[in-house]
Amino acid sequence: MAFARINDVLLHYRLQGPVGAPVLALSNSLGTDARIWDAVIALLEGRYRILSYDKRGHGLSDAPGGDYTIDDHVDDLAGLFDHLGMDRLALAGISVGGLIGQSFALRYPERLAGLILCDTAPKVGDDAMWNGRMEAVRRDGMASIAGAVMVRWFTEAFRRDRADELAGWQNMFERMPVQGYAGTCAALRDADLRDAIDAIAVPTLVVVGDQDLSTPVDLVRDAAARIPGAHFEVIAGSGHIPSIEQPQALAALMTRFLSEVGHG
């Protein structure tokens, strides 16, 4: 395990793949940690130097109290890149990780060879939804919403046929720090990049699971339409986290896109 203190927050990160290979950084979704990328990493690590990490409030990273912002997460990621001496790379993010990616691309376009946005949008949900979720976990704990979250994350087929995996991912979710989860809910509540992402000048791939209930296909398609020149793809048989349900399909799309933009 590797750790770095960035902006007074201890971040857990992992580096896999050949030293000197093109760098690919991966940002996880709300209520998850870097392990959601494991199956994709296994498929890509021979070709890329892959950085995965637990964003603040998640996994083995610190979970400071209070509300977070997307800028907090972007500052953490930029600081981690600086710490590791990563000047130019490709960045992929799922859900809030994709919002972090959008904001990073707006602030640091010169550092990105490519941007991959999975199951995300420039604006996700509304104040009432996020405030209600924050109140619920602070009052009753993570387990109180875990069942409903699993329905939104995973397809019916996954929940039926891969019950042990489902139970494991639910364990991960229930063990997330309440303050970290709620803090990142606040970041999602307050983020609205709808009027900004038309300025993204980085080559971009946007993907979505065809059965995503958290960021539905039409919402993600609209996000892709706002980014000049973005490629849009739908992954069949996937909910909100294609890196878990359909890692081979996601890895294939990522590899093709990164090859097309000359990164690996």
State the main characteristics.
alpha/beta, 11 helices, 8 strands, 8-stranded mixed β-sheet, single chain
Can you offer a commentary on this structure?
By secondary structure, the protein is an alpha/beta fold. It is built from 11 helices and 8 strands. Helix 1 links the parallel strand 3 and strand 4. Helix 5 crosses helix 7. It starts with a strand and ends with a helix. The relative contact order is 0.17. The mean pLDDT is 98.
Order of helices and strands: EEEHEHEHEHHHHHEHEHH
Give the overall silhouette. Answer: globular
Mean pLDDT: 98
Major beta sheet summary = 8 strands, mixed
Beta-strand content bin? 15-25%
Query: Which regions have little confidence, pLDDT < 50, spanning 5+ residues?
Result: none
Question: Rg to the nearest angstrom?
Answer: 17 Å
Terminal residue distance:
26 Å
Which structural class do you get from the secondary structure elements? alpha/beta
Treating each run of at least 4 consecutive H or I residues as one helix, how many helices? Answer: 11
The helix content is: 40-55%
Secondary structure: number of strands: 8
Strand order of the largest sheet: 1-2-4-3-5-6-7-8
List the helices and strands and how they pair.
Elements: E1 2-6, E2 9-16, E3 23-27, H1 38-44, E4 49-54, H2 70-84, E5 89-94, H3 96-107, E6 112-118, H4 127-140, H5 143-153, H6 156-161, H7 163-174, H8 178-190, E7 204-209, H9 217-226, E8 231-235, H10 242-245, H11 247-260
Parallel strand pairs: 3-4, 3-5, 5-6, 6-7, 7-8
Antiparallel strand pairs: 1-2, 2-4
Helix pairs in contact: 1-11, 2-3, 4-8, 5-7
